Amino acid sequence: MNQKKKNYIKHSYIFKALAVLAVITLISHLFREHLDIINIGLIHIIPVVIVAIHGNMKATIFITALSVIFFNFLYIPPLYSFSVHNELYLWSFIIFAVVGWIITVQAKNLHTQTKQNELRESLLHIISHDLRTPLSTIHGTINLILANENMDKKDRKSLLEDINYASLRMKRLITNLLDSARLHSDDIDLEYEWCDFEDILGVVLKDFSQKQNDELLSIEMDDLSLFWGDNILLTQLITNLLDNAFKYSKSDTKIELKIIHFTSLVKIEIFNQSEHIDKDKLKNIFDKFYRLEDTNDISGSGIGLAICKSIVKLHGGDIKAVARDNGISIEAELPIIKKAALL
User: Fold this and answer.
1) How do beta strands 227-230 and 318-324 pair?
2) For the ranges 212-221, 256-265, 320-329, the one whose mean pLDDT is highest
3) How far is CA 111 from the centre of its chain?
4) What span, in angstroms and rounded, lies between the C-alpha atoms of 205 and 322?
5) Separation between Cα atoms, residue 235 and residue 205, nearest integer Å
6) CA 137, 140, 145, 148: dihedral to nearest 10 degrees?
7) Which backbone phi and psi does 309 adopt, to 5 degrees?
8) CA 113, CA 119: separation in Å to the nearest integer?
9) Would you say residue 307 has pLDDT above 90?
10) DSSP 82
């Protein structure tokens, strides 16, 4: 679906209101001798209401102005002019505007309340499911260790690794929740410093299990010069991209991480094998709380990739998801805005 078609669908209610205004104006004009001026006025409020319920103040003002113009020109004496001799008619115009304003404000409040309810439900889901799952793993594993004092070292180490991995999952989830609130505030400022992607990657890998790092991850990295950016956010960016790839990849398949240095940008590319994903669904993959319909059995909050998009945008870059025959590749491009001086 191209951008023009999207814009048409998004603003189709305005075109509907214009069509309704044209129809009722035609009908009212044809039967004006049989209709009272008050009834004609009420009918001309209909297109104002159609637009106002969508909460778009600019569109409401536009349709209100057109309705008032048509109403004044065709029905208010003297006809076919914009002169108004009776101040009562002026009040009718004001009523048009007030009705549109009240409905628009109420619609916006309702939309905000709906979004808040959706956010509340999503957060409750995260707390009740995504946080409870690793917490249950930690609790159950600790009880198993305590109940088996004679457990051999190999089994004990395996269980301790499970505890460590579950705690890391909790840490990432809580970090994402905090970062999500911070990144969507209007006054966030990046803390720029010279960043070394090799050091960043070393920190990132500590957040994943030894098996994931040794057996399931393939890394290719160019010899990079220092990058001017926010070190903490760039670390979170790669952490979330890897976490997403590990969760949605086919069992026991390699995750490919590439960090490529170009003249004007650094490209981070992460590929994981997965079932085929429709291209239309990929367009929404970076939306907050969005999850694919067939991934309900995979734990996750749906905010990790939204945070990635925010971090990349704050650095002036771009991020996209590309479907391949055997998986999905997420590619982030970070522009080089400053180069380190060579000694």
Assistant:
1) unpaired
2) 256-265
3) 16
4) 24
5) 10
6) -140
7) -60, -40
8) 10
9) no
10) S
For 210-236, b/e burial (b = at least 16 CB within 10 A) is eebeeebbeeeeeeeeebbbbbbbbbb
Three state DSSP letters for 138-188: HHHHHHHHHHCCCCCHHHHHHHHHHHHHHHHHHHHHHHHHHHHHHHCCCCC
Instruction: Decide if 17 contacts 52 (C-beta within 8 A).
Output: no
* Main-chain phi, psi angles of 321, to 5 degrees: -115, 130
In terms of phi and psi (left: phi > 0; alpha: psi -120 to 50; beta: otherwise), the region of 327 is left
**CB contact at 8 A, 247 and 305:** no
Are 194 and 227 within 8 A, CB to CB?
yes
Q: Which two tokens stand for residue 223?
A: 């010899």
pLDDT band at 1 (very low <50, low <70, confident <90, very high): very low
pLDDT on residue 63: 83
**Which token pair is 3?**
């951008």
Answer whether residue 204 shows pLDDT above 60: yes
- Residue 327 DSSP symbol: E
- Mean pLDDT of the region 131-141: 78
Q: Which pLDDT band, with edges at 50, 70 and 90, does 76 fall under?
A: confident
Instruction: Report the chain's terminal Cα–Cα distance, integer Å.
Output: 51
